[in-house]
Amino acid sequence: MPRYPIQIEDLTDSVSVPKSKQMEASMKLAEIKAGDTIIVDGGFTCMRQGPHTVEADAKGVFVKCDDGKHYLEGQEDEEGAELVGVSRPPR
Length: 91
Fold this sequence. Notes:
By secondary structure, the chain is mainly β. The protein has one helix spanning 8-11, and strands spanning 37-40, 50-53, 55-57, 60-65, 68-71, 86-87. Strand 3 and strand 4 (60-65) form a beta hairpin.
């Protein structure tokens, strides 16, 4: 039987991930600074799901994406309390 490489993303719906390896809760914009690594979920059309390094310029903090820069302030929920689709990496 031939073997085919698979991506971790292909398994996430069918495999239980130990709590110690799961992403932490959503983050707040004020908690993120240039150089941090964040995990973005699969809801972004301009970048791949997974880890991204945060950068900053005069406009704010962002991650590089297919369109150039994706500013994280645009991910704040309606109350501005948490970023939607962005989490800390597992520890």
